[in-house]
Design brief:
Elements: E1 2-13, E2 18-26, E3 29-34, E4 39-45, E5 50-53, E6 55-60, E7 65-66, E8 69-70, H1 75-84, E9 87-95, H2 102-113, E10 120-126, H3 132-143, E11 148-152, H4 163-176, E12 179-183, H5 187-199, H6 206-210, H7 214-231, E13 235-237, H8 243-254, E14 259-263, H9 265-269, H10 296-305, E15 311-312, H11 350-359, H12 365-379, E16 397-407, E17 426-436, E18 439-443, E19 446-447
Helix pairs in contact: 3-4, 4-7, 7-8
Bound molecules: N-(aminocarbonyl)-beta-alanine (URP) and zinc ion (ZN) (2 copies).
Length: 463
């Protein structure tokens, strides 16, 4: 037997175990894990290195039109950024245009990704309209592998759904096995606070945070849990930022409700003070929900460690600080914080930021794999194809060098964004090699892959 690849002698970390082993790959799949004596076309020495399943980021926005701008990262640059950060699969968002079908949106997003995306990709569908005819279409999408749907309780007039629409969508997933992903912020209250702040001349970036209080997130989280409970279905909260919202999730899970939530590295590593950087610099961090006051992140770290939060995704949604030709960015909101396109880059930084948390004893190395790969695979219909390195899984393999440091900077990241929210932060750990379905994309930190290599991921529904 000659394998295509053996990753030799590394410390393999799974969601449950850590052990030294060889990982053999054949025809894009993990063929065996253990002491392997057979030959291979390629042997990669991984002694002293960490070998993990490729990261799965269940929340990215590449090539996304939003708030008068389009994200600077398209599927080519965004996925390059992903793969250099050790993420080998993403689930991005197609956006239904009000009055149009899901099909229309899905075709559009397939066109954006196909031939560009380096990593394997799936789509959630953003629901902006949900009349009777869309309900049947939702079932069809689930059958086609688009088995999750994002609804918004924020952004009135753009994305926001009322409770009846949310409840109808939740009820439908009881029939079709889809999963509702919720952006939980009380958008109506937030709009009142924004209008008041602007009328008082409070236009600087810090007012973005001050007009989106924690309670607006906690209230919406509580309401959405109640709606899901009445519909009798699971619910997943995206980009949970507030400790108070986390308490709602924790309480629901304490009642054995199937409630799940992700947080993002920005809510763990950055805080509200970042909005008060000099000049317009705070705009870098304008995202929704906003960064929270110092101290909040400690609550999220604890929740992650004890499984009150289950996933860390990035909500990568990058806009440049400086505009390009025909390419507006954050400066749209120079005179009015509410016009700053919401979002920040993140897909490349997630694994190393969380590996740093392993070094600091905040989470175990097994929990690190669980929240960045195994659980997102399970929740979003990618398991057992992805999310682990047992025989039969896709050979999405990341080799991390735990002894080499990495300094985050706009100068070395692969996103097209002109800033890095973690500029200058040094962590111990570096992504050395990345394989997707057994093919090398990054070797010794250098690009050896092919643009457009990524395949569409047809995801399964809940069983
Ligand atoms: O600020 C954010 N999060 N931008 C992306 C859109 C969303 O709500 O996820
Ligand atoms: Zn959102
Ligand atoms: Zn998002």
């Amino acid at each position: 037997m000659t394998y295509d690849l053996i990753v030799k002698g590394g410390t393999v970390v799974s969601a449950s175990d850590t052990f030294i082993a060889d990982v053999a790959v054949s025809r894009g799949k993990v063929a065996a894990v253990g002491k392997i004596t057979e030959c291979a076309k390629r042997i990669l020495d991984a002694h002293g290195k960490i070998v993990i399943p490729g990261g799965i980021d269940a929340h990215t926005h590449f090539d996304m039109p939003f708030m008068g701008a389009t994200t600077i990262d398209n599927f080519a640059t965004g996925s390059m950024s992903a793969v250099f950060g050790g993420t080998t699969s993403i689930v991005d968002f197609a956006i239904q245009t009000k009055g149009k079908t899901f099909r229309h949106a899905l075709d559009d997003w397939h066109r954006r990704a196909q031939g560009n995306c380096v990593v394997d990709y799936g789509f959630h569908m953003i629901v902006t309209d949900f009349p009777e005819k869309q309900q049947k279409e939702m079932d069809k999408l689930v059958d086609e592998g688009v088995s999750s749907f994002k609804l918004f309780m924020a952004y009135p007039g753009i994305f926001m759904s009322d409770d009846a629409t949310i409840f109808r969508a939740l009820q439908r997933t009881r029939e079709n096995g889809g999963m509702i992903c919720m952006h939980a912020e009380n958008g109506s209250v937030i709009d009142v606070l924004i209008a008041k702040a602007i009328a008082q001349g409070k236009t600087a970036p810090e007012w973005h945070a001050l007009t989106r209080p924690m309670t607006a997130e906690a209230e919406a989280t509580h309401r959405a849990i109640a709606l899901a409970e009445m519909a009798g279905v699971p619910i997943y909260f995206v980009h949970l930022s507030a400790g108070d919202a986390m308490e709602e999730v924790r309480a629901a899970r304490g009642r054995d409700l199937p409630v799940f939530a992700e947080t993002c590295p920005q809510y763990l590593y950055l805080c509200e003070d970042d909005y008060r950087r000099p000049g317009f610099e705070g705009a870098q961090f304008v995202m929704s929900p906003p960064l929270r006051p110092k101290g909040n992140s400690e609550r999220l770290w604890k929740a992650l460690a004890r499984n009150d939060l289950q996933v860390v995704s990035t909500d990568h949604c990058s806009f440049c600080m400086k505009a390009g030709v025909n390419r507006p960015g954050k400066e749209l909101g120079k005179k009015d914080f509410s016009k700053i396109p919401n979002g920040a880059p993140g897909v490349e930084y997630r694994l190393l930021l969380l590996w740093d948390a392993v070094q600091k004893g905040r989470i175990s190395e097994n929990r690190f794999v669980e929240i960045t790969s195994t659980t997102p695979a399970k929740l979003f219909g990618l398991y057992p194809r992805k999310g682990h390195l047992n025989a039969g899984a896709d050979a999405d393999i990341v080799v991390l060098d735990p002894n080499k440091s990495h300094t985050f900077s706009r100068k070395n990241h692969h996103s097209a964004a002109d800033y890095n929210p973690y500029e200058g932060l040094t962590v111990k750990g570096s992504i050395r090699d990345v394989f997707i379905r057994g093919d090398a994309m990054v070797l010794d930190g250098a690009w050896v892959g092919r643009l457009g290599y990524g395949q569409f991921l047809k995801r399964t529904a809940r069983v």
